Amino acid sequence: MSAGHxxxxxxxxxPFHPISSEKLGxxxxxxxIRGCVPKKILVYGSSFHGExxxxxxxxxxxxGEITFDWKRLIENKTKEITRLNGVYKxxxxxxxxxxxxxxxxxxxPHTVEVHLTTGEIKRFTTKHILIATGxxxxxxxxxxxxxxxxxxxxxxxxxFPRRSVIEGNST
Length: 171
Prior knowledge:
Blueprint lengths: L9 E4 L15 H6 L1 H20 L14 H25 L3 E11 L2 E6 L4 E5 L25 H4 L17
Parallel strand pairs: 1-2
Antiparallel strand pairs: 2-3, 3-4
Helix pairs in contact: 2-3
């Protein structure tokens, strides 16, 4: 919005990856990349089996056995969030925002240092700095945490989980 009103705007964002880390992130935020959107894709994918079965009672015949391919569902989920990451990048570019891929560090009240993915380090000075760090999923510090995964990982599992336990917190 600021760029649309003539302000010079730059954003520092970590490179895209479905699973966030200290070095990976992406444009679109948690909801788009690691939350609402991938969750809805997986929920929609899970609902079709019953619909296929019920359709037989309404005159539909399907030749052959209906099968489910977990890997294809995960691949398509990842394709969609990758596409959306690109959409957000284009929205920023079209609004006149400069995007720097890398990690940012505030040096003083008016200086940001950006460690670009190319290895280059740039410093920028400005009158205003807006900090919007987002959040990351973390494991609870409890016995057995080495056996646990975060929600980021759960939405990108290579193999279909046959059983799971979910521990949640909203602090």
